[in-house]
Amino acid sequence: MPNRIIRSNEVEALTGLKRNIRYKLEANNQFPRAIRISERLQGYSLKEVQAWIDQKVEDDSLRIETIIDDAGNARRVC
User: Fold this and answer.
1) Dihedral, CA atoms, 16, 4, 29, 42, nearest 10 degrees?
2) pLDDT confidence of residue 5
């Protein structure tokens, strides 16, 4: 996939994240940083955003949950 700069509305369509949430994640280094296009415009690297999405999907598929049954025994569920 060739890299290109995508604007905020496309990032929202790809991730489902509103601007204020993306800004909070960016501030905590949990989302790709915006790229300054001009004095008043910014965008995001499509490759970085796609890599972030791919990592979220991978993290979710690897998540292991522990469930406590009625007898108080813990068991892991993937």
Assistant:
1) -80
2) 97
Would you state the pLDDT for residue 57?
A: 87
> Is there a contact between 49 and 14 (Cβ–Cβ < 8 Å)?
yes
Torsions phi, psi for 18 (to 5 deg): -70, 160
Cα separation, 23 vs 38, in Å, equals 18
Residue 59, judged by CB atoms within 10 A of its CB (0-12, 13-18, 19+), counts as: exposed
Tokens of 63: 């998540």
Written as six digits, the tokens of 36 are 């300054």
Name every residue whose Cβ is closer than 8 Å to that of residue 6 and which is 6 or more positions away in sequence: 14, 43, 44, 45, 46, 49
- Compute mean pLDDT per 10 residues along the chain, 78 residues long, and list them: 92 96 95 96 97 89 60 62
